[in-house]
């Protein structure tokens, strides 16, 4: 008894150890995820010794050496800071205020109020009581601040302004400086003129407008010189306009850097073409805007067909009259026309067509049974047509039906058309069958004027069924008993 108990305890411990070993192996295989911790754990003593270095034998040192051991790192830090400080040290230059001699005379500026853009210009000063000493000229303009230096010669001072300084139009501020004193300050304007026009920026749009004189497109003009400076107010730009055989000229005047003109549409369709020309001969490419027809007027529709029988084979062709706007312009190609067909049975059919030279044409297949259609066409939201009525007659008056093989073979046909010919292949024939927990509809299509339904006994058990056969608008109902084949 005791031996069995000890054996059970030993097996239980073994199972626990086995499970622990399996779990250990599982986590051991994933140990690479914890490699930093594993490294420290395996090399604990070496890491601890590295952290304690150089005080591993601290207890063996005497009091003096212990003190030096603490002071040594501090001394190392201080020495390092001293060396870095010496390497990065820069001598401070003290500011010494300079004194300049005073001269009592007026500084005269040679007349200069305007400067041509991009031109090399001389700026002169008269300083009769100043000796030959250097002077500074500070220029504030479109490109920021620039300082020029020159020396007085015989009481006169002349600065040459580089072209690059005065490439932007506007007011420039000049200051003549001697030492730290501003002797003279004045302004001059850098200007351009219509002889410098290098390029004419223009915008013409929208590119499509409607005929009738109520819609318009607008031309905006902004001429600039070679430095992209806008032209001053009053600059003249000539605009040439062409529409069909009509040619016109317009004179625009620049105001606030631009000029604009509205071009209203004509009653006819076509292209409005414009081009611009400056007084110094700079021209532009032509720009165009298309004048499209105005909203269409109501129109009429007609139809043609081979016969009036509902054979589901022929097609009816619908055609609109030529669509025009109120000014007599033919609508542009691609205008979408919707045809809506209301049938006598309450169905709604639709067809679509795009105009070609103002006329839209579409085709619709004949119905499969006698019907009457009411047809109307629309240009959605803009115009509509008259309503036409089309009547379709049934192509047959009889639907031959034969039952064979214990009523399990139902043969429909041959179905004959209005001239005694067989109906087209693909004519739909539907069979609705009810009885013995069955209520379903099957649809098949004729080949050679007839079709055959086979009612297998494994799907339709023996019993009485009501069968409704329908084709080409004719319906027949039969009550038949199905027996074993």
Q: Largest beta sheet, briefly? A: 5 strands, mixed
CATH H-level homologous superfamily name of the largest domain: Immunoglobulins
> What is the mean pLDDT?
85
* Continuous helix count: 4
- CATH architectural group of the largest domain: Sandwich
Q: What is the overall shape?
A: flat
| CATH fold description of the largest domain | Immunoglobulin-like
Q: What distance lies between the first and last C-alpha atoms, to the nearest angstrom?
A: 80 Å
Major sheet: order of its strands? 2-8-7-4-5
The percent range for helix content is 10-25%
**How many domains make up the coordinates?**
4
* Unreliable parts: none
Describe this structure in words.
- The chain has 485 residues and is mainly beta.
- It folds into four domains: 108-191, Immunoglobulins (Immunoglobulin-like); 202-290, Immunoglobulins (Immunoglobulin-like), CATH 2.60.40; 301-392, Immunoglobulin-like; 401-482, Immunoglobulin-like (Sandwich), CATH 2.60.40.
- It has helices spanning 2-29, 35-42, 44-52, 63-87, and strands at 108-109, 114-116, 121-126, 134-141, 144-151, 156-161, 170-178, 181-191, 199-205, 208-210, 216-224, 236-243, 246-253, 259-264, 270-278, 287-292, 301-304, 315-320, 336-343, 348-354, 361-365, 371-379, 383-384, 388-392, 401-404, 409-412, 428-435, 438-445, 451-454, 463-471, 474-482.
- The strands form eight sheets. It has a five-stranded mixed sheet with strand order 2-8-7-4-5, with no helix packed on it. The chain has a five-stranded mixed sheet with strand order 10-16-15-12-13, with no helix packed on it.
- Keywords: Membrane, Transmembrane, Transmembrane helix.
- The chain crosses the membrane at residues 68-88.
